[in-house]
Amino acid sequence: MTGYIPLSVLDLVLASVFLVLNAGFSLALRLGLERQLLIAALRMIVQLLMVGLLLKAAFAIASPWVTLGIAAVMVAFAGREIHARQERQLRGAWGYGVGATSMIVAGALVTIFALTSQIQPSPWWTPQFALPLFGMILGNTMTGVSLGLDTLHTAVSRERTAIEAQLMLGHTFRQSIAPVMRRALRSGFTPIINAMAATGVVSLPGMMTGQILSGVDPQQAVKYQLLIMFLIGGATGLGVLGAVFASAWRLTDPRHRLRLDRLRKQEA
Amino acid sequence: MRIGAVKRGYTALLKISGLGSDLIGPIDLEVATGTCIAVRGPSGSGKSLFLRAVADLDPNDGVVVLDDEDRGAMLAYEWRRHVALVPAESGWWGDLVAEHFTSGNDPGAFLEAVGLVEALDWQVARLSTGERQRLAIARALCNRPRVLLLDEPTAALDQAATGVVEDLIAAQCRAGVSVVMITHDPAQAARLASRTYLMDAGRLRPSERVS
Of B174, B175, B154, B177, nearest to B166 (Cα)? Predict the structure, then answer.
């Protein structure tokens, strides 16, 4: 165990050299990506510096309300992101509500479960543990939920004639939409399944790498990573299931109709 | 206004009163057992929306009664087994034709009636528009509906296939099925329908009596 090696600003500047090189290639090859690269990099710098300061303050204050407040802000941004990533969205409050609620319920349930039964810091909401854990779970659940909802809404719109043909033959709405729902669920589950399958062989996960670089014993880092992957997988699955089922329920009515009038296409 | 009062001596099987939505109606109509009525009218006048409203596929108001049984008292999917809609563009969800004939009734007789007795093993992707149209009718008939709602059932068919489908519609009427059919062909309406209605801006009004 060597402990972690502190990084200077110069180290970070040096690390960005290859990114700057990429921007140079983009300019030379007229790819038009240099501006996007620059803006994305600047956004990342500002966001991470701010989050670093915010977390430092939150850890120092160590109040459950501050922790809850930061978690609420994270949820608000993630909910907006889910909404924005769908080409077709449910109209009205449902458009934001279905994705955000599924994500909050799944994310909060799994995070609190992990904090109270596995990690067990004292108190259980200690921001140093609760916020990074919730952030990782939320980020992955957000990706799964937005993919699941986007697939569902796009598929029901494109396959309207096939779904309605089944309704016309006297099938229930659930029977008629089942293949589309399966596809939406598969789409939502795919990133986390791929991540679990590739972890440790194709890629070393960021969190584990960070811990190892910070001097943590690799076996401990692996245990933490496994814990996180189980939690992320569980929360993503619950979130995707909740969102896809809730949205499918909203897309019909008691007369087993396909209610595409409850969807709207996002303006480009 | 009551449109299409049924001739004395006929039993009105399908009774529609005040049927409407944002875009059509209110529409009143009675269709007697075993009769065929034709609905004509310009594109966009609401003919297809009318059939969809009867099948309860879009939100709508009004009362629809089948053999004295109110539509609202029946489960929607049971209603659609009794009142079968075959739209102008049929939908397919499986790879093979056989996957679309799962009602439990033997489709053989209906496939034979539309001249596609061997079609169960065929790939849906390789069907012509006309074959799709005929198979969609056969598929709907497998539920043995009491009412058939047909949206331009022969629009994509050649003369021979049109004759086959018209014979089938006439046979269904003789067997006691009531048919509401959208057609742009006045001659076809004359051949099959006892009455013709015109749809204009979402309202239905009687046309000339054909027979």
Answer: B154
